């Protein structure tokens, strides 16, 4: 079994996340994509992040009809900060025969040396980076080579057709009472309206 992990704050979950999931699923020939909403992300001021269970339920509803997608609540239910190496250890423990692919943006690769227990992360999964606008290919390749040489592990780069959507852009549009229906799944828009989020 080959499963891809897409983690994130998902505040809110949007069509760009689905786009990455579909593309990674096909390009990596995966059996499943697992979305893992963060609980308390250590790199953000979590006091300004929407409640974890609200974000979890947004993702759960948005992927409810996707047979190749699933969601995991480990980080949402976990006490304290959410660290990638701990999540990967947990996943390997409950599914020891699964080959895990950790899928993230190029910004994660650039900042990877700032993460906790990088060597452990690279031991527990295949680290897959999708390219985003705003980063030079030269800079990305240089960082990729540096990480591979430092940890003696391979980093996988994949090119995806770009959808330049961000959660912060969506929040800003909602705050300014602008339409976001073309950027997010219908169920996410319903939750945002019912719970009066991002106003």
From TrEMBL:
The keyword Nucleotide-binding applies. Pathway: Cofactor biosynthesis; NAD(+) biosynthesis; deamido-NAD(+) from nicotinate D-ribonucleotide: step 1/1. Keywords: ATP-binding, NAD, Nucleotide-binding, Nucleotidyltransferase, Pyridine nucleotide biosynthesis, Transferase. It catalyses: nicotinate beta-D-ribonucleotide + ATP + H(+) = deamido-NAD(+) + diphosphate. One of its GO terms (biological process) is NAD+ biosynthetic process. Its EC number is 2.7.7.18. GO terms for molecular function: ATP binding; nicotinate-nucleotide adenylyltransferase activity. InterPro entries: Cyt_trans-like, NadD/NMNAT, Rossmann-like_a/b/a_fold. Pfam families: CTP_transf_like (PF01467). Residues 5-173 form the Cytidyltransferase-like domain. It comes from the Bacteria. Catalyzes the reversible adenylation of nicotinate mononucleotide (NaMN) to nicotinic acid adenine dinucleotide (NaAD). PANTHER family: NICOTINATE-NUCLEOTIDE ADENYLYLTRANSFERASE-RELATED, PHOSPHOPANTETHEINE ADENYLYLTRANSFERASE. Belongs to the NadD family. This is Probable nicotinate-nucleotide adenylyltransferase. It comes from Clostridium acidisoli DSM 12555. The gene is nadD.
